[in-house]
Amino acid sequence: MSTLKRLSLAAAVLTFTGCVASSNQTKDTYYEDDFSMETSQPAAATEASVETRKPNTAVETPDYTSNTPIVSEVSKKIAAIEAKLRQIQKNIKKDSDSFRELKTKSAEESGRYYEHIARIRARLQNGTTPGNPELTEMWKQASVLLNGSDKNMAETAKLSSEMVRAKNELDSLLENIRETFLVPGAMEVDHENLKVLEDEANQTTVSLNRLSSDLSLQIARQQQYFSTESQNINMLGTEIQAGKVLNRNAPQASSAVAQPAAPTYLSAENDLPEADLTGRRPLMIIRFDKRKVDYEQSLYKAVKAALDKRPSTHFEVVAVSPADTKTGVAEAAKNADAVRESLLEMGLPASRIYSSKSSSSSIKTTEVHLYLK
Fold first, then answer.
1. Residue 67 in domain
2. In the chain, how many domains are there?
3. 61 lies in some domain
């Protein structure tokens, strides 16, 4: 090999060696750059996905919808009906609680009354001094308790009058509900609410009727108790003055007093006797000039005032019709019958209510006049 060839070979070897050394010293970032791009791309994608998942607070409402609730005129009417029903129920509950308290009070007072009576009779049975002051004091206490039962009876009768008013209000409310079903412009929910109110009003009527029945029974019991014991305690006072038990079967002087004739009750307008109103002033005049007449409270006050002045008062209910018409006679008799029923529900005994009829040329609508008998 010639010297020239040797030099060329050596130069080639040196050149190759330098290239290898250079490749070891210089870092190749070509693939590294590609890796960096690959690793940073998912992070950017994540941020983009987070941005797309943020809630959109400005949600557009379609043009055909509305966030304002629709309140129909029927809905307003239903709200008024419900408010009236709640008030009626509140009043009934209040009267029911008062009735319960009156029953409890009456039971306690009658229990103490009978304790006094039993002690007095035991002493009289064994014999005692005439006009014994101890027995006289017990007799006075028993009389106070008996008078208290009379006051309780008046309060119970007043509650019965309130029940009559509540019944009229419920009947009017149910009629209003039925009329509201026919009012145009209602939504489906309005009729559903009306059905619920109608069912509730009917159930309230059932409860009210039961309460009214209990009141009537209580009034009847109180009347019987007060009537019987009023006679017994008067006789007991006589026995205390005598200091011994007397013969209660012996005829009393008061039995010779003439009793009033049996009252006439309303059955048909033709059966009613003509009232003799000469020189008499009515205690109360009830004019039936509209469909529903609320007279019970005024009637109760008038009757109570009369009984406070004279407890043995009897009353005459007169059906008054216009003189120029025959059709009003039956209507007047019907109205008078309703007034008589109200008096009975207030606790007035049927034997103290008389019924009659009359006519007047000065009136245009039927009336019912109440007179003291």
1. no
2. 3
3. no
Q: Phi, psi at residue 182, to the nearest 5°? A: -90, -5
Q: What pTM does this model have?
A: 0.51
Strands 284-287 and 367-372: antiparallel
> What is 249-271 written as a DSSP string?
TSPPGGGGSPPPPPPP--S-GGG
Tell me: do 96 and 227 sit in the same domain.
yes
Burial label for 261, CB within 10 Å (0-12, 13-18, 19+), is: exposed
In a domain, 58, yes or no: no
User: Measured at the alpha carbon of residue 354, what is the angle toward residues 351 and 358, in degrees to the nearest 5?
Assistant: 175
| Edge-to-edge order in the sheet of strand 367-372 | 284-287, 367-372, 315-322, 353-360
Residue 365: DSSP 8-state: S
Residues 293 and 335: their CA atoms lie apart, in Å, by 10
Task: Give residue-wise pLDDT tens across range 132-164.
Answer: 999 999 999 998 888 888 788 888 888 888 888
Q: How far apart, in whole angstroms, are the C-alpha atoms of residue 89 and residue 201?
A: 9
Taking a C-beta distance cutoff of 8 angstroms, is the pair 345, 161 a contact? yes
31 and 90 in a single domain? The answer is no
